[in-house]
Write a structure and sequence with these properties.
heterotrimer, A: 2 domains, six-stranded antiparallel β-sheet, three-stranded antiparallel β-sheet, 9 strands, 37% helix, C: Cytidine Deaminase, domain 2, eleven-stranded mixed β-sheet, elongated, PIGA_GPI_anchor_biosynthesis (chain B), glycosyltransferase (chain B), transferase (chain B), lipid metabolism (chain B)
Chain lengths: 190, 462, 582
């Protein structure tokens, strides 16, 4: 298990943790920056100040309680549905690729893609939010057409690592995908 | 100009224009062919244009020519809307990540090209502009466009025009120093336009028209010519390729005079089909009202057709006297010209298609164009880019008091915006794009046939 | 190729024995279903397995041996286990052994034929047998293609899920049964069953039969009545109450039909309909109990008449205002007066109609309230119909039959007239055959008349447009209220409540897929993974099991609605028959 520091496209520091469970099983996790107490308190105080301003103007205490309510709900929603702490990729040779993103509240959403569906893992370029970025994606095999690609599943969508980090992940993935390519040949010889 | 030897520098050129494939036309093929020849000569070239329908993002064409289809709103006639500022973040990102040294903008109709020039100058990059069209001076819209062109070109390093008429026009319109304007004509790929006399039906006479059906191309003249000549010559046929708002005019003419069997409207043509249409005819008719450099007549001549054209713009420079019949842009003059051509055809005094082709083949080639463009780049690369205060001075002194000050203000705002963007995302955290162009590029030819993933792997292992 | 062994986690404490399960050769994986304990007679095991195979149509076989040694390693046992491999010939022969309470098991394979003992990598995947058996993978596979073809195509996981789900029979024996063979699996400590469920199953059959009989009776009556009087079917189709009743009737028919549900989807659909019907009726009865307490109906009826009067008065004021110089606009006086009087007369008619009804309103409401026991949706539909009837005058303003004087037609005609005359003005005409605008040369007389008409129409346009605008806004208000009610009804009708409850309480029953968790590793031992079921997200639960409803949502977007309003086309709260079909 090793951990290396990289930067995201936005410049935020991220950490890539690689862990080899066995010869055909890699776990790669990209951990984004933690929730900063500074920004949290800044947003909260901004909302409360605005609420206090309204309270002074309208002289109804409803505003203040609404502000507290809104901050709480907002924080819960942010932690539970928006803020992704860690995105990890579990590549198990001959079984499949599992993509997990864990939210700050501890909620995890997982998708498992079987190896028979995976056509390849590639690095691609895209225009995203006034930026041109590199991203890693899984190409899914089109069941009708063996050459075609039915769907592209982008990875690390929230942390958006830079190219050097993506290359590390890419190399590890390709190492395992290569095993899959060579396996049928060797059995053919045997 | 002496730098054209083996020790020449490689430039990172960014072609910017609103017009690129899958849109079809002269500017589009010019950009494509020029880029291909420049890649062949060892430069890194990329094309930036706006998104066409579902075609957006980043695509690779032959030889790793990278095309950015940016998601900008199209306003009118495939030209993007401009606010002069909103495209800066994306264009700056592209210029930085591709390490662009020269920004080459195309076509004065393209708002995106002007935007890119403006941003490139703010970022301190060298700029080149190619003008593909002619303008008038009289009406309100021309006056406005010319003013904008003056602003846009007054601090551009170099301007390329496609013909001497065009150069004259541009110099006058934009009040430029003729020293920084070069003439590099367009070219055609002669191997794509070879004559094939067997394809045409010699029992009848066929006149071919291939152009977009818009006002500028003189379609209203064509609608006057068709009934007149069809009445006079019963074995005369018209073949019209192209699409546009003026198609309805031709359809009405066809219906009114019952010419459905003699006037065929083919609709929009793919570039590779143009040759197959051209070789079916004997005479090529061009009715343009304004034209900087007519590629269509060169293509037609290369296919061995007799060309009849209006004498406007740069057309007289394009072909030698014996290959073209020039007329005034009126129905009568064009009819006379066509009748003369038909008479020559009937008497057999026209040169054979093969000889015409062999003659035209040598006139215009893309390699030649690329060489000459490269010389322009060499010259531009040695020039110094105007600093901010010089640029403001130039704007104020060159463009008149009101416009000058307004655009100087815009330039300052743009600069401040750029400083803000550099603070938000410093250049150092923008990933450098992997160079895929040319024979030395990361994507060599054999991998293009293989899978995308393998290609990427090659990059990573290298 | 890596060998995968799917091992049920309930068998991890089983005594030593042999492993039975299915070998999926194309994926090089073994799905272990149960462990057979010592002592057994090999012939009996073989016979038992062949019986199971006949019932389940799954190739269940002996895959290998399992040793769970609680004491020191016994030499004799391991030799014996290897010998077993020769009795039950299987390729490869899997040997799993657990030492005392160690978490890390050693796992090896024996290849008898191949003389090169190649070390194969093995992955041990633990799975929860109960959950896997009961869960259904989504999206469900279509069962139409031939089965053998499917088996090849189906993904690894689907094959594994199928194997476990289809071998239910294997799990029906517990350890208290006296059989020749002792098995360990998830139900080996006792088969799960519930008395209530069994009783309900027994009771549902006669209940369904009774319901079916009643339903067929009602539908027969309905059909006969409907056929008799010709205007009735038209009226039924316009009243949303009848639509809703018909819809519910269909639902009841679906539930009570004694045909067995063919697959998972149909089963879920039946359950969803049943639950939504139950909840609907429960809500309706709740509403009814609220309404009939404390004479609330009387209060409602008392307030209704003054409200209607008030609305009428407001409308009259509005018309008076329009007949003057509204917002300082100077309108065509003659046309203005004609239109205004016409509408005033209408309001007068409507008020007398309401006053005529006023003594009966309480009684009507009382009877209508009873309908809530048929369900909340029916009550809501009746409410929507009442609103439609009470605001009939607004509808009349909007479309008064097909009369040319109607505002809508007037405005519509004006717009069409203006557009065609504008074309005439420019020397163009609309070519109907080719669907395009042609140029055309008109005579002088034609041009003169056309221009005259164009001018008159143009100057009369503001007056008509103003009336149109005001009454369209009123109409839109009513349509929006009705639309909201229908949206609520649709929501109750279409929400798959049973599936949502299932997802909430037994999330493993609806599986979107699986997820793996890597368990602790030790060098030299096989990779251990825990397979868990990944439940379907709520969004896709609703999407998959949404019940179809009778009314369709308005398909036109905002721009097309605005366009329709501008050109004066009719907008309906209810849909036409033709539109309903898709």
């Amino acid at each position: 298990m090793e951990e290396r520091r990289y930067r995201a496209v936005s410049g935020a520091p991220i950490a890539l943790r690689r862990r080899q469970h066995s010869a055909s099983c890699w776990e790669l996790a990209v951990r984004g920056p933690r929730l900063q107490l500074r920004s949290l308190s800044a947003v909260t105080s901004a909302v409360w100040l605005a609420a206090y301003g309204l309270f002074v103007l309208s002289e109804s205490s409803m505003v203040l309680s609404a502000a507290i309510f809104i901050t709480l709900i907002g924080l819960i929603v942010y932690l539970h549905f928006v803020k992704i702490d860690q995105e990890s990729l579990l590549v198990i040779g001959s079984l499949g690729i599992q993509v997990t993103s864990s939210y700050a509240s501890g909620k995890e959403s997982t998708t498992f893609i079987e190896m028979s569906q995976v056509k390849d893992v590639v690095i691609n370029e895209a225009i995203h939010m006034q930026k041109v970025i590199y991203y890693l994606c899984i190409l899914l095999q089109d069941p009708q057409d063996p050459q075609g690609v039915s769907e592209v599943v982008p990875l690390f969508q929230s942390s958006q690592p830079r190219l050097d980090c993506l290359m590390e992940v890419y190399k590890s993935c390709q190492e395992i995908l290569e095993q899959r390519k060579t396996a049928p040949q060797s059995s053919g010889i045997k | 100009m002496a730098a054209g030897g083996p020790a020449r520098r490689a430039h990172n050129v960014c072609m910017v224009s609103d017009f690129f494939y899958p849109n079809m036309g002269g500017v589009e093929s010019h950009i494509y062919q020029l880029s291909q020849c420049l890649i062949e000569r060892g430069h890194k070239v990329l094309v930036v244009t706006h998104a066409y329908g579902t075609r957006k993002g980043i695509r690779y064409l032959t030889n790793g020519l990278k095309v950015y289809y940016l998601p900008l709103k199209v306003m009118y006639n495939q030209s993007t809307a401009t606010t002069l500022f909103h495209s800066l973040p994306l264009l700056r990102y592209i210029f930085v990540r591709e390490r662009v040294t020269i920004v080459h903008a195309h076509s004065s109709f393209s708002a995106m090209a002007h935007d890119a020039l403006f941003h490139a100058k703010t970022m301190g990059l060298r700029t080149v502009f190619t003008d593909h069209s002619l303008f008038g001076f009289a009406d309100v819209s021309s006056v406005l466009t010319n003013k904008l062109l003056t602003v846009s070109l007054c601090d551009t390093n170099h301007i390329i025009c496609v013909s001497y008429t065009s150069k004259e026009n541009t110099v006058l319109r934009a009040a430029l120093d003729p020293q920084i304007v070069s003439v590099i004509p367009n070219a055609v790929d002669p191997t794509d336009f070879t004559p094939d006399p067997s394809r045409r039906d010699d029992s009848i006479t066929t006149i071919v028209v291939v152009s977009r059906l818009v006002y500028r191309k003189g379609i209203d003249l064509l609608s006057g010519i068709i009934p007149e000549l069809c009445q006079k010559y019963p074995d005369l046929h018209f073949l019209v390729g192209g699409e546009g708002p003026k198609r309805i005019v031709l359809e009405e003419v066809r219906e009114r005079y019952q010419l459905h069997d003699r006037v065929r409207l083919l609709g929009a043509l793919e570039h590779q089909d143009v040759r197959n249409v051209l070789v079916q005819g004997h005479i090529f008719l061009n009715t343009s009202l304004t034209e900087a450099f007519c590629m269509a007549i060169v293509e037609a001549a290369s296919c061995g057709l007799q060309v009849v054209s209006t004498r406007v713009g740069g057309i007289p420079e394009v072909l030698p006297e014996n290959l073209i019949l020039l007329c005034e842009p009126s129905v009568k003059s064009l009819c006379d010209g066509l009748e003369k051509a038909i008479a020559q055809l009937r008497s057999g005094t026209l040169p054979s298609p093969e000889t015409v082709h062999n003659k035209v083949k040598t006139f215009y080639t893309w390699r030649n164009v690329a060489e000459r463009t490269e010389k322009v780049y060499e010259r531009v690369a040695d020039e110094v880019v105007l600093s901010m205060d010089e640029r403001l001075n130039r704007l104020i002194s060159h463009c008149g008091p009101v416009t000058g000050y307004i655009f100087a203000l815009f330039a300052v705002l743009n600069f401040l915006f750029l400083v803000f963007l550099r603070w938000m995302t410093p250049d150092s955290i923008i990933d450098v794009a992997i160079d895929a162009t040319g024979p030395k590029g990361a994507w060599t030819k054999q991998y293009f046939l293989g899978k995308k993933g393998r290609v990427k792997e090659e990059i990573l292992n290298s | 190729m890596v060998l995968k062994v799917f091992f049920p986690s309930c068998c991890s404490s089983a005594e030593s024995g042999i492993l039975i399960g299915r070998w999926i050769s194309e994926q090089n994986s073994a799905v272990i279903l149960a462990v057979v304990h010592f002592p057994f007679i090999p012939a009996q095991v073989k016979q038992y397995l062949s019986e199971v195979q006949q019932v389940t149509k799954i190739k269940v076989s002996v895959l290998g041996s399992w040793s769970n040694s609680k004491q020191e390693k016994e030499e004799s046992l391991s030799e014996f286990l290897e010998d077993l491999g020769t009795i039950f010939s299987h390729e490869p022969w899997i040997q799993i052994s657990k030492e005392r309470d160690s978490k890390f098991w050693s796992c090896s394979t024996l290849q008898k034929q191949s003389n090169s003992p190649k070390e194969e990598e093995i992955i041990l995947v633990y799975y929860d047998q109960r959950k896997v058996m009961l869960s259904h993978l989504h999206p469900p596979l279509d069962t139409t293609p031939s089965t053998d073809h499917k088996a090849n195509d189906a993904s690894k996981l689907a094959a594994m899920f199928d194997t476990v789900a289809n071998s239910k029979i294997l799990f029906m024996t517990d350890r208290y049964d006296d059989g020749p063979i002792k098995l360990t699996h998830w139900q080996s400590d006792g088969v799960e069953a519930s008395i209530i469920v069994e009783l309900m199953k027994q009771a549902s059959v006669p209940a369904c039969m009774l319901l079916t009989f009643l339903l067929s009776l009602t539908s027969a009556i309905c059909k006969r009545r409907m056929l008799k009087f010709w205007p009735l079917p038209f009226l039924w189709s316009k009243l949303s109450t009848c639509e809703q009743l018909g819809h519910r009737l269909q639902h009841l028919q679906v539930i009570s039909s004694n045909k067995k549900a063919q697959n998972q989807i149909q089963l879920m659909r039946k359950a969803n309909i049943f639950v939504s019907l139950l909840i609907d009726v429960a809500l309706g009865i709740l509403l009814m109990s609220w309404l009939y307490r404390k004479n609330r109906i009387g209060h409602l009826a008392d307030t209704l008449i003054p409200v209607a009067d008030h609305v009428a008065k407001e409308l009259q004021d509005l018309l008076q205002w329009l007949m003057g110089a509204p917002a300082g606009l100077k309108m065509n006086r003659a046309l203005d007066q004609v239109l205004g009087r016409f509408f005033l007369y209408h309001i007068h008619l409507w008020i007398s109609y309401i006053h005529l009804m006023s003594p009966f309103i309480e009684m009507i409401l009382w009877y209508v309230g009873l309908s809530a026991c048929l369900g909340l949706t029916v009550a809501l539909c009746i409410l929507s119909d009442i609103i439609a009837l009470l605001t009939f005058h607004i509808y009349c303003f909007y479309v008064y039959g097909a009369s040319v004087l109607s505002l809508l037609r007037l405005y519509c005609l004006k717009i069409y007239g203006l557009s065609s005359l504008w074309r005439l003005f420019r020397g163009k005409k609309w070519n109907v055959l080719r669907q395009r605008v042609d140029s055309c040369s008109y005579d002088l007389d034609q041009l003169f008349i056309g221009t005259l008409l164009f001018t008159i129409l143009l100057f009369l346009l503001p007056t008509t447009a103003l009336y149109y605008l005001v009454f369209t806004l009123l109409r839109l208000l009513v349509v929006v209220v009705q639309g909201l009610i229908h949206l609520l009804v649709d929501l109750i009708d279409s929400l798959p409540l049973y599936s949502i409850i299932l997802r909430l309480c037994r999330s493993y029953r609806l599986a979107a897929g699986v997820k793996f968790r890597v368990l602790e590793q030790k060098h030299g031992k096989p990779l251990r993974l825990l397979m868990q079921i990944n439940p379907l997200s709520y969004g896709s639960v609703v999407q998959t099991y949404r019940l179809p409803t009778y009314s369709c949502y308005p398909k036109d977007s905002w721009t097309s609605l605005c366009k329709k309003l501008f050109f004066g086309e009719l907008i309906y709260p209810w849909k036409h028959k033709g539109e309903k079909q898709d």
